[in-house]
Structures are given as C-alpha cells and as structure tokens.
Design brief:
One of its GO terms (cellular component) is cytosol. This protein is an alpha+beta fold. It has helices at 9-12, 74-80, 89-92, 111-120, 162-165, and strands at residues 25-26, 30-39, 43-52, 57-61, 93-97, 100-103, 136-139, 146-150, 157-161. Strand 5 and strand 6 form a beta hairpin. The protein is elongated and about 70 Å long. It starts with 8 loop residues before the first helix and ends with a helix.
Length: 166
C-alpha cells in the first residue's frame, strides 16, 4: 500500500511548493507533514500526513499521548477526530502553511492522490486508455444476431436484438 513506484521524495514536489509547511519531512518515497482536523465538539485532532509517491495517503494520529491509531486514511482520520460532518475530508483535513490552516484541497499534496484514484476506479477506461461501456455487445455465432447485455443488475438481461429489428 505504501510502496513507491521508484520515485524519490525529492522529485515528488518542488521545494517552492512545500515552503512554509509545518514539520515537513522528506523520506525515501514519501513526504510527511503535520495535519489536523477540527471538531466543533472536541477541538483539533493533530496527526502526521504521509503522501507516498504511489498516491497513497496515510495519517498517524497524535490527538492524545495514548492514541494508538496509525495508518489511517484521511476519511478514517476525519471520523476518528469526531468531525460531525464527515465525508468531506479534502476540505476538513488541514495542514498549517505559514501559520494558517489550509485544507488539503487547496494544497499540492493531493496531486498524486488524484492521479492514483483516477487510475484505480471511476474512469471507465479500458486497458488501451479508451472509454468503454459497462454493457456488453455479444453476437450469436449460430444465428449472427447482435445482443446488448445490460450489466447494471445481478442478472444479464437482453435489451435489444439489433439484427432482429432490421
């Protein structure tokens, strides 16, 4: 999960992009910075955000001295911190830049996360990079009728028989 893809932390971000970030550390394949999430009920929960070259994000919680939460996703850290409106971690999890709390969505730290999430799911692209349909087009070898199989339900249903309509 935390494996880099041969990239060094020095090449993840330019030094100008990281200026002013609090407690910045560069590792072999990650960049680590202090982060937090504010709950109106419990106040600030502080942690350390690691951004890996692969696009993975991990937070080690430091909300209390005895907290043993480690390797949390940003969404899990947001929930752990007691945030009432969880699910918007890109806006609720922040880092400190030059003394100000700045949400992750306004920083360069999500540059590799966004690229990794697009490649992983939701893009509907095939191995050749072109978009593909979830539906399947199947041609019967015996009668040469083209069928459209709709893939949204648990059962495959034949919607249209194109050759039969001609």
């Amino acid at each position: 999960m935390a494996g880099g893809q041969g990239k060094d932390a020095a090449f993840l971000f330019a030094d100008e992009e990281l200026i002013g970030m609090t407690e910045l550390k560069k590792g072999a394949n990650f960049v680590e910075v202090m982060c937090g999430c504010t709950s109106h009920r419990y106040g600030d929960a502080v942690g350390r955000l690691r951004v890996f070259a692969s696009g993975d994000l991990q937070i080690s919680c430091e909300c209390t001295p005895g907290c043993e939460e480690d390797k949390l996703t940003p969404a899990a850290f947001e929930k752990h911190s007691g945030r009432e409106t969880a699910r918007k971690w890109k806006n609720n999890v922040w880092i400190i830049i030059k003394g100000d709390k700045v949400s992750l969505s306004k920083t360069v730290l999500l540059k590799y996360y966004n690229q990794a999430s697009k490649a992983a799911n939701g893009s509907h692209k095939g191995p050749n990079g072109r978009p593909f349909h979830r539906d399947e087009f199947v041609c019967c070898k015996r009668c040469e009728i083209l069928f459209v199989l709709h893939m949204t339900t648990a059962f495959l249903t034949v919607l249209i028989s194109w050759s039969a309509m001609e």
